[in-house]
Amino acid sequence: MNVTIRLATPVDAEALAHLHLDVWDDAYTGLMPQGILDDRREKVAERVERWRDILTTSGNPTYLAVGPDGLVGFASAGPGRDNDVDLELELTALYVRATHWGEGIGYALLREAIGDRAAYLWVLGGNDRALRFYERQGFRLDGTEDEHDEGLHVRMVRSGT
Predict the structure, then answer these.
(1) I want to staple 96 with a disulfide (CB 3.0 to 4.6 A). Which of 28, 73, 75, 136 is the partner?
(2) pLDDT value at position 58?
(3) How far apart are CA 68 and CA 103, in angstroms?
(4) What are this entry's molecular-function GO terms (predicted)?
């Protein structure tokens, strides 16, 4: 794994927006309606501004995995947004380019974002690769589901170690 993990800054917004589009295509093509992925690509400028705003004002860290050729992954975490789970930390994003799957980058990003702390996250149902990855990290499905335009999301939780 020839990458460096570092905190994202507002200067990273454009590159991060493009990475976010790419990793969604990698992860979700065939798992969600193609129109959703296509629509995201048509709004690049909006996505750049959204990332700039997140990185400027949210106060929640986003970590980047940076390789020799640029960004290869990212992870974000922050205070839990669900009222029905007794965990204070939510992993809100963890993505790695498909060309770097299996290199330990996702694990490194997860360790940086939440460490061994108790947390929860949402996964697109049918994303078996992600489900297996999170299970290896101690997360378990808690039976909670939420239907979105992208498809069924399932919640996974992990108690701290």
Answers:
(1) 73
(2) 85
(3) 14
(4) acyltransferase activity, transferring groups other than amino-acyl groups
Measuring CA to CA, which residue among 55, 46, 49 is closest to residue 74? 55
Which residue positions in the chain have pLDDT lower than 70?
Answer: 1, 160-161
3-state SS of the chain? CCCEEEECCHHHHHHHHHHHHHHHHHHHECCECHHHHHHHHCCHHHHHHHHHHHHHHCCCCEEEEEECCEEEEEEEEEECCCCCCCCCEEEEEEEECHHHCCCCHHHHHHHHHHCCCCEEEEEECCCHHHHHHHHHCCCEEEEEEEEECCEEEEEEEECCC
pLDDT of residue 61: 94
Question: Which structural domains are found in the chain, ordered by start?
Answer: 4-158 (3.40.630.30)
In one-letter notation, the amino acid at residue 101 is: W
**C-alpha–C-alpha distance, residues 52 and 128, integer Å:** 31
Helix axes 13-28, 34-41, angle to 10 degrees: 170
